[in-house]
Amino acid sequence: MFIEPRVGNRHNAPRRGWIEVVCGSMFSGKTEELIRRLTRARIARQQVEIFKPALDTRYDTEDVVSHNAARIRSTPVAIPSEILLLAAGSDVVGIDEGQFFDNSLVEVCQQLADNGTRVIVAGLDMDYLGRPFGPMPALLATAEFVTKVHAVCVCCGEIASYSYRIAASESQVLLGETDSYEARCRPCFLEGMQTKALPSATQSAVTH
Ligand SMILES: [Zn+2]
User: Which of this chain's residues are annotated to bind Zn(2+) (predicted)?
Assistant: First the structure.
């Protein structure tokens, strides 16, 4: 489990900023981990602000909600630079669904950390095709602390790091995760992708 190098700032030491990334597939507990860290910072009387992309409205427009319904108030923002304005005075900035922001999120996180803010970004490291997702790879490279969390493969029960899309859409952003995706391990993800790649006539021949 991740333990912060410093939670509060009791002795009024100079503020130190850094970047933490919590990444993984869908259903891996990223948001729960983000909420756990932010809750601890609040206990230490840190000023905490949470942001998420304005497009992510799956459950609630203002709360960051994890699958197990832990929630924390958050501010939806359209572009990362809004975070710089809205986070003024915060000790800790949490960002959920980081993969949906553009690459300017990396520079925004750097600026916040350079100015003494602890930044915690949660997000999908890979999209539904297994490709690095949005600004996440650059954030992983620049963060001081990286935590990769894992889901459980629904096919075989091994550790899962892929988000396998059940729905037919080919858009990189497809909201509504529980009915559109499942967590899969590498072999089960590959097997699913190969089955999808087969023409439908061959596919029905294979399955029947
Ligand atoms: Zn599996």
Answer: 153, 156, 185, 188
pLDDT digits (tens, 9 = 90+) for 66-97: 655 556 778 999 999 999 999 999 999 999 99
Residue 40 three-state SS: helix
Contact 116, 14 (CB under 8 A): yes
Other Cβ atoms less than 10 A from the Cβ of 197: the count is 9
Domain membership of residue 52 (yes or no) is yes
As annotated, the binding site for Zn(2+) includes: 153, 156, 185, 188
* pTM score: 0.86
Distant-in-sequence, close-in-space partners of 169: CB < 8 Å, separation ≥ 6: 180
> What is the number of structural domains in the chain?
1
Distance 77 CA to ligand 1 centre (A): 36
Domain assignment present for 177? no
Buried b (16+ CB within 10 A) or exposed e, 79-110: ebeebeeebeebbbbbbbbbbbbeeebbebbb
| Structural domain contains residue 81 | yes
Helix (H, G, I), strand (E, B) or coil at 70: coil
- The four Cα atoms 82, 87, 89, 91 give a dihedral, to 10 degrees, of -150
* Per-residue pLDDT reduced to its tens digit, 133-189: 999 999 999 999 999 999 999 999 999 999 999 977 777 766 655 678 999 999 999
**Tokens describing residue 91:** 């000790």
Ligand 1 centroid, distance to 186 Cα (angstroms): 7
State which residues form the domain around 135: 18-149
CATH of the domain at 123: 3.40.50.300
